[in-house]
Design goal:
mainly alpha
């Protein structure tokens, strides 16, 4: 009995959870049965790209595009990959295939929807790198995304967190402060500002940040937890970097 549908569903579910080992296993088994799944090749390309396996990633995206020449998602993913590899001519050629009407415009006049799409693609790749602990790589992706969309505060927050993981506390604090200047109500950024101060040894500033969060959001569990942590003995705090 053909179990292609089950393999596809299981693979997609694993992919969405970023369980790429399981997703790849399902997709490989599925492609042995039928090599006409453009969506599967596209997802395989994302998996390979996340692991730094650039040649297989390119091949997978190209197979997706061969099956469906108008597959915008795969074309964008391959464009992002070529940009990452510094192959700007190839990236530009692909961009023109996807958006011929906008490709003749100057960069600053790029369609806002397209900027959003490409920025989010870089951010998604940054999330993948961050999720497996490759923070230098995630920082590059978030910075690339923010060049296109500097006003995306959620990406700025992720950028700051990756910088903190690389012990670049001062830079992370600057970015978190910028986020809060743009949107003082972004309490998640204030929580993380407190965490970053705490990691830097600035206990009082950390406590002030968390108290400010609780003043506006009395039920914020993260701020409550961190304040409790700040009051615990030094031996316990040393385990919570």
């Amino acid at each position: 009995m053909d179990n292609s549908t089950e393999l596809f569903k299981e693979g997609v579910q694993a992919f969405e959870k970023k369980d790429y080992v399981r997703a790849e296993k399902c997709f490989v088994a599925l492609l042995k049965k039928n090599k006409n799944y453009a969506d599967v090749y596209n997802r395989m390309g994302v998996i390979y790209h996340s692991r730094g396996e650039f040649t297989p990633a390119i091949e997978a995206f190209e197979k997706a595009i061969k099956i469906n020449p108008n597959y915008t998602e795969a074309l964008l993913n391959l464009t992002v990959l070529y940009n990452d590899l510094g192959q700007y001519k190839k990236a530009s050629a692909l961009y023109k295939r996807v958006f011929p009407a906008t490709s003749k415009r100057k960069k600053e006049k790029m369609d806002p929807f397209i900027k959003n799409k490409i920025a989010n693609k870089h951010a998604e790749l940054g999330d993948i790198y961050a999720g497996i602990g490759l923070h230098p790589e995630s920082i590059v992706q978030y910075e690339t995304a923010l060049k296109l969309r500097p006003q995306f505060l959620d990406i700025k927050l992720k950028w700051a967190l990756s910088l903190r993981e690389e012990r670049k506390h001062t830079q992370a604090i600057q970015i978190l402060s910028q986020i809060l200047k743009s949107n003082p109500r972004f309490h998640q950024a204030r929580v993380q500002l407190g965490v970053t101060y705490f990691a830097q040894g600035e206990k009082k500033k950390a406590i002030d940040a968390w108290k400010a969060v609780l003043k506006a959001h009395p039920n914020d569990e993260s701020a409550k937890m961190y304040l409790k942590l700040a009051d615990e003995p030094q031996s316990t705090k040393a385990k919570t970097k």
